[in-house]
Design a protein that fits this description.
The chain is α+β, with helices and mostly antiparallel strands. It folds into 2 domains: 118 residues, Immunoglobulin-like, CATH 2.60.40; 114 residues, Immunoglobulins (Immunoglobulin-like, Sandwich). The protein has 4 helices and 18 strands. The strands form 4 sheets. It has a 5-stranded mixed β-sheet with strand order 2-9-8-4-6, with no helix packed on it. A 5-stranded mixed β-sheet has the order 11-18-17-13-15.
């Protein structure tokens, strides 16, 4: 009975009182939300995103309207405070929406926040409005290049493979590029260095095996040199950050006898080196000359 009595009063008021500047007893609702996106750091603990929201209700000034608010964020906990209140007439009302991002959510994960508002009066259909925003888990970046092979060895002209690993220490998927830091001197000296993978796409915590093929020139001398590989986060670069790591190994090369290694290659002046007689050959030649000289001398004395 009370409900019907209230409805009768509202209808009587609607019929008896003139509309004010086109106002209707059936309300309308408009909503805004700021900011459009909140980035939350949830790497060490759960994070919270806060949004400032406004509801604008338009209706008859003597009617009390009920406003209900709900928030949904694709599985993340979202709430409005207050989530229900009474509005009369025309005016703006503010509230906050909170979204909780669980700890350990992958970096870069973005979800849409939907806030729905409804306004109603007894006996009249509810009017609704929806506003949107985004919540994104902040991405952290990290790279680890490591190897258990700190040195390799090979003969001149023969290839050797150096293995190492690359790990994504960030909290989200990342692309990691690999480059040889000191490549130019090797190329100038005739070496061949080739990575089997120069770009990796790794999930958080994922490790990939990579190898570097190293071939010294055939005329290499006995030597030990170092080569260094650098890994760079492409995701960090897109965020104007520099995240890098390096690993290196030493390469021992043994010259091939007769293959131009050691002193048998090109001289420092660029001329071709031609091998000469050794010590035994020189001693034999001197003995032969001495014997010949002594023989000639004995003939003269005779």
């Amino acid at each position: 009975m009370k409900r019907w009595a209230s409805l009768a009063v509202l209808v009587a008021l609607a019929l008896a009182l003139p509309a004010v500047q086109g106002q209707s007893i059936i309300p309308t609702i408009k909503m805004t939300i700021e900011p459009e996106e909140v980035i939350v750091d949830a790497s060490g603990s759960q994070g919270t995103a806060l949004f400032n929201c406004t509801v604008q209700v338009e209706g008859m000034p003597y009617v009390r309207y009920r406003v209900n608010l709900t928030a949904v964020c694709e599985g993340w906990c979202a709430t409005c405070s207050p989530n229900t209140f009474t509005a009369t007439g025309s005016g703006n009302f503010t509230y906050t929406t909170t979204v909780v991002v669980p700890q350990g959510e992958p970096g870069g994960e973005s979800r849409q926040l939907n806030v729905t508002g409804s306004v109603s009066a007894p006996g009249f259909p509810a009017q609704t409005c929806v506003t949107y925003a985004f919540v994104t888990a902040k991405q952290s970046y990290g790279i680890d290049l490591s190897t258990t092979t700190s040195s390799v060895s090979t003969d001149a002209g023969k290839a050797v493979t150096w293995p190492f690993s690359v790990k994504n220490n960030g909290n989200g998927r990342d692309s990691i590029s690999l480059t040889i830091e000191n490549l130019s001197p090797f190329l100038s000296a005739g070496w061949a260095l080739r990575l089997n993978r120069s770009l990796l796409s790794l999930d958080a915590g994922q490790t990939a095996a990579v190898s570097l093929s190293i071939t010294p020139p055939e005329n290499s001398k006995d030597q030990t040199v170092s080569v260094q590989v650098k890994g760079s986060s492409r995701g960090a670069k897109s965020d104007n950050l520099t995240i890098e790591d390096r690993t290196e190994t030493s390469i021992t090369v043994k010259a091939v006898p007769g293959g131009g290694g050691g002193g048998g290659g090109n001289n420092t002046d660029g001329k071709k080196f031609i091998p000469g007689p050794g010590v035994p050959e020189v001693a034999a030649a001197m003995a032969f000359v001495g014997a010949l000289f002594l023989r000639q001398r004995r003939r003269r004395e005779a």
